[in-house]
Description:
It is a single chain. By secondary structure, this protein is an alpha/beta fold. It has eight helices and 17 strands. Helix 4 links the parallel strand 6 (about 150-155) and strand 7 (about 170-175). Helix 1 (about 60-70) packs across helix 6 (about 205-220). The radius of gyration is 20 Å and the shape is globular.
Amino acid sequence: MQSNLSAHSVLKQFDVLPPGLLDIPVEALHTLVPEPALFHLPGKRPETLFVSVLLHGNESTGFLAVQQLLRKYQGQSLPRGLTLFFGNTQAARHNLRRLDGQPDFNRIWPGTGLAPSPETAWAAQICEIMRRRGVFASVDVHNNTGRNPHYACINKLDREFLHLGALFGRLLVYFTHPKGIQSGAFAEFCPAVTLECGRPGQPHGTEHALEFLDSCLHLHEFPAHPVARQDVDIYHTVAQVCIAEDASFSFTERSADLLLDSGLERLNFTEIAAGTAFGTSSTARVPVVARDNAGIPVTERFFEIRDGQLVLKRPTMPSMLTLDERVIRQDCLCYLMERLPLEGG
Length: 345
């Protein structure tokens, strides 16, 4: 599907929700919110909780959790101000991460390496609007396409970020790459977190996100004490792994340059040993590219072709491995992580 977002579209802001929002299915949301929009809702405390959902159109859990949250407070005051951002509703219409011709809505935020576009313009505008309004915390809700546990991602290791992440659960991922993500941009002026709520369509994911958002609305301030080391498991993303642009890959076609193992998803959030194979390769060259947090290629540190297989050269922990070939090509094959010791506590 092609994007039909107007090249001259201007970010829209509203102080009330459109009628029918609380009950509309996500694939029809575009009829109420056809383009990215902000909704500013008042609350008892003025410091605003910012919540973004549907930056990827096929990740519906955040929207469903927001619907349930709004139903809970229907007819009464919210505990604090709430600004909602509904992202790629046109892609949600077709249950796609993004439409052909669109940039990834979670790569367009200030700090991005992408060329200026209408999307980068309204992303910068959102940051400026929210910086002026004063934000208590920012929450960006996502799903995984692969089999992963629920976890929270943070872009800084400051006390408030750690407490915010730990409010979701003990599994935290600290990362600084890729650039241009929503939480990374908001981290420059408020505590920010990305929630990874498992696969879309799972009631537990919606319930977990709802509980977290409700807790954020009621949280008066972040604790002054450090997060205790025994309360969290924190991992640091050290590389993003993508399929080489000129390499073919598949889970089923043996003629592809890289025939990936159909059981890869089981490796997510598992500490795996050097020598673990990701698949078989029909080429002598490594058909993936690993880049560190500065975007520098580090493929040779992590991968090699050995006896016709693509194998890891060092122990690591992958995340976000998926069997969805479209998502792999649009985003990446996986991230590689290492355990990060938490000082203090």
